[in-house]
Amino acid sequence: SNRSGARHITVSRKSSKMFVCSSASSSVSFDSYTLIVPCISVGNVGQLAVDLLINSLRPGRVGYLHDPSLLPLVGNDAFDHTPQSGHLHTAAEVYSSSELKITVVQIR
Questions:
Q1: Which of 71 and 9 is assigned the larger pLDDT?
Q2: Tell me, what DSSP letter sits at residue 44?
Q3: Angle ∠(50,79,74) on CA atoms, nearest 5
Q4: Do 18 and 86 touch, CB atoms closer than 8 A?
Q5: Residue 54's Cα: distance from chain center in Å?
Q6: Mean per-residue pLDDT for 59-82?
Q7: Do 47 and 54 contact (CB within 8 A), yes or no?
Q8: What is the pLDDT of residues 39-61, one digit of tens each?
Q9: How far is it, in rounded angstroms, from Cα 5 to Cα 60?
Q10: E strand or H helix at 49, and its extent?
Q11: Is 56 helix (H, G, I), strand (E, B) or coil?
Q12: Is the confidence at residue 6, as pLDDT, over 50?
């Protein structure tokens, strides 16, 4: 904890937490990052706004969320515009930019 009371977390790949790291490293640190999560609502406005952020800021995919409360689904990578890329994504993808110090969760 710091003076503001905020906790800093490091998520391990071997952890039983709901974040699953997709990088070759064993852990990802989100210390001092801003977390952006869409609010699922009418018209999917939050999800569309997060799509715009991911498409324009280009944070890297660092993992996904895995939890029984999330529907088990996969779909094409919405941000890969190359034909026949074959990259699948899950219901809750996590993107991060160390340069911008942001972490974005996209929920489908």
A1: 71
A2: G
A3: 90
A4: no
A5: 10
A6: 82
A7: no
A8: 988 888 999 999 999 999 999 88
A9: 28
A10: helix 45-57
A11: helix
A12: no
